[in-house]
Amino acid sequence: MISPEKLREDVDFAYRKLQEMHPNLNWYISKKELDFKFDSLKTTINKPFTSTQFYFKLQPVIAQIREGHLSLRIPAKRFSKKEIKALKNKKGLFGRFEYHVEDDHLYFIENKDSIQNIKPGTELLSINGVPISDYLKKYRQLISSDGYNSTFYPYYLKDVFFNFFVAEKGIMDSAKIETLYNDERQILTLKRESKNKTEIEKDKADKKRTPEKKLNDYVAATSSYNRNFKFLDKDSTIAYMKIKSFSRTFSNKFYKESFEKIKNAESDYLIIDIRENYGGSLYEINQLYSYLAPEPFVLIKPSQLVSRVTPLKTNYFRKSNPLEYTYKSLAYPGYFLYQALNVYKGKDGIAYYKMKENKPTKPKENAFKGKVYVLINGGSFSASSIISSKLKFDKRVTLVGEETGGANDGTVAGFYSYQKLPNSKIDLPIGVLLVQPNITFGNTQKGVVPDIEITQNMQDIIDKIDVQLDWVKNDIQKLKDNKTQN
User: Fold this and answer.
1) What is the separation of C-alpha 175 from the centre of its chain, rounded to a whole number of angstroms?
2) How do strand 98-102 and strand 105-110 relate by DSSP bridges?
3) Other CB atoms closer than 10 Å to residue 151's CB: what's the count?
4) pLDDT of 234-278, one tens digit each?
5) Which pLDDT score is estimated for 340?
6) Where are the domains of the chain?
């Protein structure tokens, strides 16, 4: 337990560091309003809290800054090697299902292992007697999109719901749940099961990096690929690229090989699917854009900093063991020089950070010249929103789906200054670069709006009906039919 005085010190520390590091803190909330929220928070801290309890008080205030990248790290228990080994060979309690969030309701939409015969479409009403709606309302306050778009929340909340739950309740071996399906309520007990020998061997095999796994960026935790490429028709006129994360890992090779296949096949249409892609590397989206651009382009505007010294306040030595500390000490002069040389002051007197992505880039030799569709939804965030915004502004693609979770006019991220609150020891990573697409800003304070708006409901997901992709396929067929008739 940490005293109220110490916790109030942490509130002041957090706000001071945000003002010192964050280049656009009052983008979506005025300084006066934010001052009031932090002052009001301190008046509510009148008794001791644990770090976790304090997290649930401070994070909702930080979320009201409305910067999706800005968030306290959830305090986590430090496990012993013995505990880690024991958990390693056990299956998840709640993590073996896929979920869907609608308002204050949480539904199971996939149950691959047929656990307790829970059917897709079943609503999870409560866990150990506590209504799920209570948790959803509480956890909704802990996250924010960029700005005032609301599409981000159901996608992100379904993915992080049990991160918050475990932080609050701890890791359980069993839980009593209440479910509702076809007006029938059931009380079920979920139990954490041990993995059998076959499953343990499969885990080991999943971790082996084959050439295919490297190229398509295989994620062992979800048994899926971050990147996929294929043709959707027999004559290879429609190319389809699914990118779940702009991780940068082997991205150069993936795009080079994929666009060579497209060129060799003489494809007329390309569909790029970045739904539920939370973002990642600016380098990778610049690389992808270079295969779509008809002429030289600049992806992002110069990236603004609070001051010229901000890049030197990133806590360079954080989480270093003695050996790493020694190595980093030797490398520090080079790091210092690199950061110092990459900062410059503009004619407007503002500090900017040099990045390859805010310099002109030439189109690739194999750049695709045909019709491009990009699928987006509320889970398209950060780098996904940057590239969507730029593509839309340049009128290079047709965007299909939902408004993105990330803002149309950019975000604050780039790289981070890692701060630790002195008393609660909670980590606060603060993005130090204002990253904005090279467009004329709409100042809507919302996400990238699609050209064709199509939403997918829960039954579509359960039935594996992709209404957004189907619309694109139908539109392509119409274009093909028109070509034939002409």
Assistant:
1) 29
2) antiparallel
3) 23
4) 999 999 999 999 999 899 999 999 999 999 999 999 999 999 999
5) 79
6) 4-63, 91-191, 226-305+355-485
Is 80 exceeded by the pLDDT of residue 298? yes
Task: Quick: pLDDT tens for 2-37.
Answer: 999 999 999 999 999 999 999 999 999 999 999 999
Kindly report the number of other CB atoms within 10 A of residue 220's CB atom: 15
Higher pLDDT, 198 or 183: 183
pLDDT at 389: 98
Q: pLDDT tens-digit profile of 333-359? A: 887 787 878 899 999 999 999 999 999
Q: CA 67, CA 24: separation in Å to the nearest integer?
A: 10
Dump pLDDT digits (tens) for 5-14: 999 999 999 9
Cβ contact 111:100 at 8 Å? no
Which contiguous run of DSSP H or E holds residue 481? helix 467-485
User: Residue 4 CA to chain centroid, in angstroms?
Assistant: 34
Q: Determine phi and psi for 426, rounding to 5 degrees.
A: -80, 140
471: part of which helix (H) or strand (E)? helix 467-485
DSSP state letter for 373: E
| Bridge partner list, 361 | 297
Provide the angle, in degrees to the nearest 10, between the axes of the packed helices 282-290 and 383-393: 30
How many residues in the chain? 486
Q: What is the pLDDT of residue 202?
A: 79
Residue 69 has what DSSP assignment? T
Q: Is 282 helix (H, G, I), strand (E, B) or coil?
A: helix
**Helices 132-140, 152-169: crossing angle, 10 deg rounding:** 110
* pLDDT tens-digit series, residues 439-465: 999 999 999 999 999 999 999 999 999
Residue 262 zone, left/alpha/beta (φ > 0; ψ -120 to 50; rest): alpha
Q: Is 390 within 8 Å of 299 (Cβ atoms)?
A: yes
Q: Among the residues of 424-466, which ranges form H helices?
A: 458-462
Choose the CATH number for 91-191 among 1.20.200.10, 2.30.110.20, 2.30.42.10, 3.40.50.2300: 2.30.42.10
pTM metric for this prediction: 0.92
State how far Cα 274 lies from the chain centre: 11
Burial degree of 182 (CB within 10 A; 0-12, 13-18, 19+): exposed
Is the pLDDT reported for residue 486 higher than 80? no
Q: Token match 């290879």: residue? A: 236
HSE-up of 88 (CA within 13 Å, CB side)?
Answer: 11
Residue 49 CA: distances (Å) to CA of 8, 287, 364: 11, 47, 56
The CATH class, in words, for 226-305+355-485 is: alpha beta
